[in-house]
Every structure is written in C-alpha cells, then in structure tokens.
C-alpha cells in the first residue's frame, strides 16, 4: 500500500494520464494505471501536477514590513534602501520571526516549498540573522529555507560590514552574498567581489550576489564575478542576481560577457516584478524597464531562474508569494510568448531554480522526494496564463495545503451555471 497516489495527472514535460505513487516520503512510481491501494488518493482529472515551486531570491527579513516606519512615497529603490535603514534599528527578533512565519504560511498555500532568502548583515547586532536561522529551523518540516549573508549597505561601505558578514557565516548562514554596485567606487565593488569569492572558496560555500542592479551599462561587476568564479573553481556554485545593467549594455560587450558567464557556469536570477518596477526611474522616454537579457542567456546555455525578491516591503508594495505571478510578468517583459518559451519560463520557476539552489531529490521521477503541487490548469502555459490555483500541495506524500478551485457562478438563462477558467477557453496544449 502506498501513502498517496495522484491519478490522471498531466506532467510539465507533456505526458498525460500519469499516476504518481508516494511511499515513505519518496516517489515510488510514475506511470499510467497504477492499481495498488493507497491511504489517500487524489484524482487530478487531467490537471497539471508539478514539482513544488522554488524562489531562489527573496528577502524574508523585510517581508510584510510595508509601512514601517512609513511608506515609500516615491516607490524607488533608493528610498526603499533608506527606509530599510530607518527600520533596521527598530527590528526585533520576535517581530522578524512572526512576519517571516506568516509569509511561509502564504508560501505553502502557493506551492512554494523552497526559498533562498538574503539576510541583511549590515547591522552588527545581526538580529536579522538570528531571526532567519530560527525561522529556517521552524519551517524545516515543510519549507527548505536557504540563507545568504547579504551586506545590504556594502561589504566595505558599512562600518562593520566585513566583520559582520564573517560572523553571520560563523553563525551558520549558508551562502556568501554581496552588492558590489553599492560600494563607494567601482574599484571597491571589484575588490568586494574578489574578497567574497575568496571567502566562499575558503569555506566551501556557494555565492549569490546582487550584481549590477542598476541602469548603468558600465556597471560590469558580473564580469569580475565570472572571472573570480573560474579562478577559485566555483563553477556551478555561483549565482548573479538581478544583472539589470545588462539591459543597457551594448551588443558587442555582451557578446563577450555572456560566453564568460557560460564558462563560469553561472546561475542567473532575474527578478521580473521588482526589476521592471524599480529600474529606469531616471529615464523619460524611451524608458528602460531593466530586466536582464533573459532570452540571450538561455540561448547561451546558462541556467536562468526567476525570483520573487520582495513581498510588501519597503521596495515593493505588492506581491503574493505566487511564483506563477513572477512567471506571468516574465512572459510579458521578456516577450517570451511562444509555447516553448513559456515552457522555459515554467522551468525557471521549478527545475532551473532547483539547480540554482542545489536541491537534492527534486522532481517528479521515481526516487525523488514526494513533494508536488496539483494545479487548476492542464499545462504550464495555462498555469502561467491564469496564475492558477494550487488545488493541493503535497510534502513527503502528505497533503499540507488545499485551496478550492476558482469558479464563477452564472445566473443567465440558457448559459452554464458554473464557469471554470481552466476549462474550455484555450486550445489543447
């Protein structure tokens, strides 16, 4: 007897009519027509079943802090950073933990079971680190939470930035972060990348840097990051987040840069919602929107995944914890409307992000963890179009969240009584 069987599932790779059996927290079979008994059965009825969503770039220490100590009136990145600087001395471990746990509750209902959070290390108190390490432990039964030591005010620029980041790593933070474009000079930025990659190599840790989150095409710290990745043998363990300056770079320079990034096997994490909201603020028209060169990076074979980045914090007053919202925006801003392109975007929310995060046992194959999501959609393209309801969220073969299907009731003579937005409105995918 299995613990769980999900029957009649459509899979992201296009297979239909598939059953998935889970036992002892692990997928035991993925095939049509499983006849064995199970303690619980879910009939997917031709709906899409996906591995859980992953968010490889988030700021959980800031989430749900919107309005503290006041609203971001301009909506700009710099005012958001200033607001966070005002709020930082008021932060308490208890409040940080409470907000983060509330966000994790929301994330679970959205099928988001893997999150990488950047944790601000600029305050020498490191209350943010203490809080996020507590949250990591408390949510471990249902969310894999990775932590990045993030020197928000600059590794060299913050008064105790160097010591604080080292202390955060000593406390158990998983990944080395950075923000070279926020140092005082380009030279300081370059030096910070070199120093931080050396720390990662010495400690055997991955790297995930906010890199070139600016409209300045001469902000080229990603070049240094790629070179240092190769120098220290960190290939495949380094992520460049944002990379918005690439939106403004000339084609000749990018034609040299992308092969260097590919040689470094760099993971790339654009953040569509926040990138297009915060970039281009100094432009009139034409107006840049600031997302990196997603199509070109994918075409060059780099592993591209998308992050949510922010939800209701000083930088972004919106957000829902739904990675399909992130992908929906990516389709528009990256102009990736083809079926193959939509499939690539769905992978960027799932498989690619799992690669970025180095997750083991991820996927829908026999032997993978019994973690999955049943969506109110038939295929990835439809899930992205509708930002579909996550009907059931499964962790280790156990249902940990359910959401009723979205349906509308009609009161019109001669018309159907119920309308399911995922039925009868799109061609077969």
Automatic annotation (TrEMBL):
A Pfam family assignment: Amidohydro_3
**What GO molecular functions are on record for this protein?**
cytosine deaminase activity; isoguanine deaminase activity; metal ion binding
GO annotation terms (biological process) = cytosine catabolic process
Domain Amidohydrolase spans what residues?
Answer: 40-400
Q: Which superkingdom is the protein from?
A: Bacteria
Assigned keywords, A-Z:
Hydrolase, Metal-binding
Q: Does the keyword Methyltransferase apply?
A: no
Annotated InterPro entries = Amidohydro_3, Metal-dep_hydrolase_composite, Metal_Hydrolase, Metallo-hydrolase_Enzymes
Show the NCBIfam families listed in the entry. PRK07572.1 (NF005748)
Q: What is this protein called?
A: Amidohydrolase family protein
């Amino acid at each position: 007897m299995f613990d769980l069987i999900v029957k009649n599932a459509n899979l992201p790779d296009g297979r239909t009519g598939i059953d998935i059996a889970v036992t002892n927290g692990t997928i035991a079979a993925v095939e049509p027509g499983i006849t064995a008994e199970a303690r619980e059965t879910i009939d997917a009825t031709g709906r899409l079943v996906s591995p859980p969503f992953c968010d490889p770039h988030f700021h959980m220490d800031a989430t749900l802090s919107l309005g503290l100590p006041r609203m971001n009136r301009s909506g700009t990145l710099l005012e958001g950073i200033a607001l966070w600087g005002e709020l930082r001395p008021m932060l308490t471990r208890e409040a940080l933990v409470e907000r983060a746990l509330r966000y994790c509750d929301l994330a679970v209902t959205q099928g988001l079971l893997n999150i990488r959070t950047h944790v601000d290390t600029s305050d020498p108190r490191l209350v943010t680190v203490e809080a996020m390490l507590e949250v990591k432990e408390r949510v471990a039964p249902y969310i894999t939470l990775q932590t990045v030591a993030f020197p928000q005010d600059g590794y060299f620029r913050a008064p105790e930035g160097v010591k604080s980041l080292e202390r955060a790593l000593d406390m158990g933070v998983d990944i080395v972060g950075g923000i070279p474009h926020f140092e005082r000079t380009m030279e300081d930025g370059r030096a910070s990348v070199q120093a931080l990659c050396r720390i990662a190599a010495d400690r055997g840790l991955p790297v995930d840097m906010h890199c070139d989150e600016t409209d300045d095409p001469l902000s080229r710290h990603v070049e240094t990051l790629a070179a240092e990745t190769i120098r220290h043998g960190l290939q495949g363990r380094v992520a460049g987040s944002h990379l918005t300056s690439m939106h403004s770079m000339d084609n000749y320079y990018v034609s040299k840069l992308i092969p260097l990034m590919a040689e470094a096997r760099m993971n790339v994490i654009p953040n569509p919602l926040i990138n297009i909201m915060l970039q281009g603020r100094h432009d009139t028209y034409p107006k840049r929107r600031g997302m990196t060169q997603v199509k070109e990076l994918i075409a060059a074979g780099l592993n591209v995944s998308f992050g949510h980045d922010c939800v209701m914090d000083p930088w972004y007053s919106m957000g829902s914890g739904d990675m399909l919202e992130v992908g929906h925006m990516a389709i528009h801003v990256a102009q990736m409307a083809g079926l193959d392109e939509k499939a690539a975007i769905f992978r960027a929310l799932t498989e690619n992000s799992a690669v970025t995060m180095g997750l083991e046992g991820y996927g829908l194959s026999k032997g993978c963890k019994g973690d999955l999501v049943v969506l109110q959609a038939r295929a990835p393209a439809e899930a992205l179009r509708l930002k579909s309801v996550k009907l059931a969220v499964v962790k280790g073969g156990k249902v940990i969240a359910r959401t009723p299907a979205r349906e509308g009731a009609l009161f019109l003579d001669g018309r159907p009584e119920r309308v399911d937005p995922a039925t009868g409105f799109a061609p077969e995918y």
